[in-house]
Amino acid sequence: MKIQRSVSEPIRSVLSWDERWSGEDGGLIACWERGREKRLEDPLLAEKAISGQLVVLPWKGGVERATKKKQKFGSLHYLAMWQGLRADDLNIDRSVDITLTCAATGVAVSFTSDFSKYAEA
User: Considering the entire predicted model, what is its pTM?
Assistant: First the structure.
């Protein structure tokens, strides 16, 4: 299932917890919107994300430093927040793993909806 939303759309307000997290998108839109808010709060962090760095965010997927293990797994919630931080449109296909490589560390992170992959990694 593809989850898409244009950055030109306003951030939703006055939604209940259930409306944000229990809908068909599973909270991805809420994460993306929070990334858009965080962009305004921390422009330096946003610039790092724009440059291709997989910055540390509340969800699994950020890369603090280079590691021996060059492959990691991350949450699609991270990817959604990262896209919002960059002011990108939300564009996630939950049926496909997406791999990005951190520009700062060279570590590749595969973002997946399969929780078992990143829980065990």
Answer: 0.92
Which pLDDT tens digit goes with each residue over 20-74? 999 999 999 999 999 999 999 999 999 999 999 999 999 999 998 877 776 789 9
* CA–CA separation, 27 and 11 (whole Å): 13
| Residue for token pair 């997290």 | 21
Half-sphere exposure of 41 (CA within 13 A, CB side): 8
Nearest to 111 by CA among 66, 71, 65, 84: 71
Q: 3-class DSSP state for residue 55?
A: coil
Pairing between β-strand 98-101 and β-strand 108-112 as defined by DSSP bridges: antiparallel
Locate the domains of the chain by residue range. 2-120
Q: What is the DSSP letter of 108?
A: E
Residue carrying structure tokens 């990005």? 100
Instruction: Please provide residue 99's backbone torsions phi and psi, each rounded to the nearest 5 degrees.
Output: -110, 130
**How does 36-46 read in b/e, with b if 16+ C-beta sit within 10 Å?**
bebbeeeeebb
CA distance 8 to 110: 27
